[in-house]
Design brief:
Number of helices: 7
Shape: elongated
Largest sheet: 7 strands, antiparallel
Distance between the termini: 28 Å
Strand content: 25-35%
Radius of gyration: 22 Å
Helix content: 25-40%
Order of helices and strands: HHHHHHEEEEEEEEHEE
Oligomer: single chain
Number of domains: 1
Structural class: alpha+beta
Amino acid sequence: MSDTDLTLNDLFDINFTHLPEATLYSLDMTAEMHRLHYAVKAALPHDRWHNIRKNFLQELAPLLDISLKRILLETWQSLESVKAIFEEQNKGDQGSTVIKLMKHNLRSSHCPRLAIQFNQQDFELQLFIAIDLDIEDLSLKIDRGEIIEILTGCAKGKGIIQYQNITLNETDVLPLSLVGDMPKRLVIPPNIPNIQSQKSTHQRARKGLSNVVQFIIGITIALVAVYLFWVY
């Protein structure tokens, strides 16, 4: 597998259920998390918040299923030098072209949102995810107005995940090999699950550890618009 087949989940390798206690405390102090905590406590007064919060936080992981390949393609296809080759190829019947790009920096930020419905109340959490990559020795193969292959190239840099200025994770992106085939078209559907349930919390039996499960069943997890917001 090429490193370009990775997602931001792979780059950060974060476990949202094992955040430091200081970070969890800061999260609980934010307005939306505090409001959610209050709603859960009112509906499930005998449940332990930190167990319910743990099950909830693990649902943030799919928000990072953002393809690195998609980020690279969208950036390179916007470069004037690449667009000029696209235009030339679209005018005639010339074959594939190889273009070398100078060392450059790629910055990409994303604001995926998780919408939650609990006990007939709506909540929304929005992450801020940013990566900053230095790309070197890059050569692209272009055919019929599309980038079809990365012949040479490597990248390294940094990344950060935040919620309302609270840093959840910072990582150094180790050198990545970018060599590999690219899709014929920039249509990479997000592989994020869409889980829905409309059952009321108060209508379920409460047995043993089912209290924690009730929270997960009782929420409607819908990724807003499914499409992730790209901010450049």
